[in-house]
Amino acid sequence: MPRLLILTVLVLFAGLWLPASAGTAPAFHARILLIPLDDRPPCLQFTQRMGRIGDAEVVTPPMELLGRFTTPGQSEKIISWVQQQDLKSFDAAIIALDMLAYGGLVGSRVHNVSFDEAIKRLTIMAELHKRAPALKIYAQSVVMRLAPTADQKNGAYREKLAHWAEISVATDAKSKTETATLEREIPAEGLADYKQARSRNLRINKQAIDLVRRGVIDYLLLTQDDAKPQGVHIADRETLIAETKRLKLTDKIAIQPGADEVSMLLLARALNKHANFSPKVKAVYSSEKVGNTVMPFEDRPLRQTVSYHINATGSQEVDREQDADVLYYVYASRFETGRAESFADEIAQKIGSGKHVIVADVDPKGDVQGGDTTFTMALEKRHILPELSGYASWNTAGNTIGTALPQGVIFTLAQAKLLKQPAAAGRIWSAQNWFLIHRVLDDYYFHNLIRAKANQFARQVGRSSTLMSDETTRQVEEYSLNLLRQSFDELATNFEQKRPGSYQQVVRCTKPTNLRFNLPWNRTFEALIDFDLSCSVTP
After folding, report:
1. N or C: which end of the chain has fewer CB within 10 A?
2. Partners of 285 in the beta sheet?
3. Which residues pair with 518 in a beta bridge?
4. Segment 249-261, tens digit of pLDDT
């Protein structure tokens, strides 16, 4: 069976899955239209699965229209698909404008689509608003990152181009000299394409702001893809901030770090607004110093990223624990001896006292980009994982924060408004436990332990984003799945061992089974992991 067909079946199964005991299930609490940033699991699978925690059905275009890595999504066909939908059957729409304009995130980094063509495609936004004026539209438009996507064409100069993008704005003599040298070494065609893509994207970012001004988009996140504190992106960002302030739209537009996780943030916001709910969140850092430090691949301190993400979900950040509906524990102290154990103790104490807790395990150096071993084992040893409202530990700080937080926010909403409904409770607990297990399995066991071994097996030591042939990919998938099965069984056993007084005492789940594993982009940098789990609530 062709790889694309296999992946399509897996993701469709994930989107349509219901607990086995549901039978003919009643309608969901909400129905959300999603145009994702691309077909990768964080943008698609995570958002669909997270929707179930809020008892929401997340509906997306057919998988085959979303593209794959450097093959862009079929924007025109996606627009046609949207035009065929009964828009009044949805409670909200979450739309990545980059998919409509360029065919996805990777497509946005090259100048294969002109500004005129991109803006023509975005006319579908006004059409949506006209056809369904009551439909709330939440949108994302990405501010282009510093580095282009690695491909076969730019392999020889990609790093030089990324460095040029970082230092070319500097005014000191050394930077000017180095910039001139880089401009001689980078192929003129490659540099011109990069500049044209940046210029076009900034114009589209501005058009997104105008769609908010016109009342087409209800809430917009202009999100900065991977960046650094200095670079050509700073001017773009400041231009967008100034335009937002000029139009007095700061309550409807946020400009913040992020990319892959943004659909989950907007999902939490959409569900909160739909339920007229706004949970209060208090952030707790493992280190005040690291909370004020800029994390790898980002351009702002960790604390600011957390605050921006909290606001994006439609939640309220509070300073006092007694005012909070949920506590957000942010661990970024992997190199502080003893802090993993003491932070886990603090979390366990709060859970034991009846507090609801979200945990983000952030990689402060960017060299592992998966969960920390000492901290993860501390959580497992204390049987904390089943008690968490949200958890994540993958890739950048923004990715981790923007996955754990919306899960926890949506589960807080479910606890406040939905779990007392018998028809929904089983679905919600199934989705919540699936997501918690999935996060630890994916973020820690695969990304921290197995991915490095898989790279060695594929003879691409130290590299996770290198494309493999279909045959090598199949071999690496089989190799990784065999390693993951043991971790899967160990994690499932640990997860079943609930703490005394667990709020899951009334929840009964089947043992997780039928583990599936794929590398959707023929590289080990991201994995599509799936399995079956069904939970029910005893009276």
Report:
1. C
2. 330
3. 528
4. 999 999 998 899 9
